[in-house]
C-alpha cells in the first residue's frame, strides 16, 4: 500500500522537459486529455511554444506579461509565417506556475490544454522576442513582433504516464531531465517519509 502511494505521488510531480540552454524550457505533465504545459524563457517580450515541426498550421501558445505583471496567454494558429490568428474560444486555461522559474527566466507561465497532438513524443517548436506587444498587452488581440529566436525539437514527452501500472518512481521519469528527476524523487521521498 505504501509503495502504491509513492508511485501515485511521483506520477503527479514528475514532468519531462526540453531546455535549450538557459534561454528556453518547456515542461509537460498530465494526460492527453488535459496536459499542463509550463514555459520558461529568457526573453522579456513574449515567448511561445507550438505543437508541430513548423509554425505554419501548428497549434501555437504564446504568452507575455500584462500590465499588472500577470500573463496574457493565447492559443493561435498561423496559415504561414505571419501574425497568428488567435483561437476563439482560446484552447488554453491559465494555471498557477507549475514548475518554479530558474533565475534566468524573465517570462514563466503555465496553462492547461486539451488540444490533440500532445503525446509522449511531441514535436515542439518554440520562439521568443524581447519586444513585448506594443499595445493592448492585457488583451489576447495584442499585436506582437516577430520572433528573435526560435528552435525546434522532437520527441519530448509532455505527458506523465499515470499511476495505474504502479511502476517505481524512478522509472516513470527515465527520459526526463536529470535535475527534474532528482527533484521529483527528492519530493517523492519527502512525501514518502510522511506516508511512513
Ligand atoms: C494580468 O494577468 C493576470 C493573470 O495572470 C490576471 O489575473 C489579471 O487580471 C491581468 N491583468 C489585467 C489588467 O488584465
TrEMBL record:
Domain Cellobiose dehydrogenase-like cytochrome: 36-153
Signal peptide positions (record): 1-15
InterPro entries: Cellobiose_DH-like_cyt
A family per Pfam: CDH-cyt
Keywords associated with the record: Signal
Name of the featured protein: Cellobiose dehydrogenase-like cytochrome domain-containing protein
Lineage: Eukaryota, Fungi, Fungi incertae sedis, Chytridiomycota, Chytridiomycota incertae sedis
Amino acid at each position: 500500500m505504501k509503495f502504491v502511494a509513492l508511485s501515485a505521488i511521483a506520477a503527479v510531480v514528475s514532468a519531462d522537459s526540453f531546455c535549450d540552454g538557459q534561454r528556453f524550457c518547456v515542461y509537460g505533465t498530465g494526460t492527453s486529455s488535459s496536459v499542463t504545459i509550463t514555459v520558461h524563457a529568457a526573453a522579456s517580450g513574449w515567448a511561445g511554444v507550438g505543437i508541430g515541426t513548423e509554425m505554419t498550421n501548428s497549434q501555437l501558445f504564446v504568452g507575455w506579461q500584462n500590465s499588472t505583471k500577470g500573463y496574457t496567454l493565447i492559443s493561435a494558429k498561423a496559415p504561414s509565417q505571419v501574425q497568428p490568428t488567435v483561437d476563439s474560444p482560446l484552447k488554453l486555461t491559465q494555471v498557477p506556475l507549475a514548475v518554479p522559474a530558474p533565475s534566468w527566466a524573465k517570462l514563466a507561465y503555465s496553462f492547461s490544454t486539451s488540444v490533440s497532438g500532445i503525446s509522449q513524443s511531441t514535436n515542439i517548436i518554440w520562439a521568443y522576442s524581447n519586444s513585448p506587444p506594443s499595445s493592448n498587452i492585457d488583451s489576447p488581440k495584442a499585436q506582437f513582433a516577430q520572433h528573435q529566436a526560435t528552435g525546434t525539437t522532437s520527441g519530448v514527452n509532455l505527458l506523465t504516464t499515470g499511476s495505474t501500472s504502479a511502476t517505481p518512481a524512478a522509472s516513470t521519469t527515465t527520459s526526463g531531465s536529470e535535475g527534474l528527476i532528482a527533484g521529483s524523487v527528492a519530493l517523492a521521498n519527502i512525501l514518502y517519509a510522511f506516508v511512513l
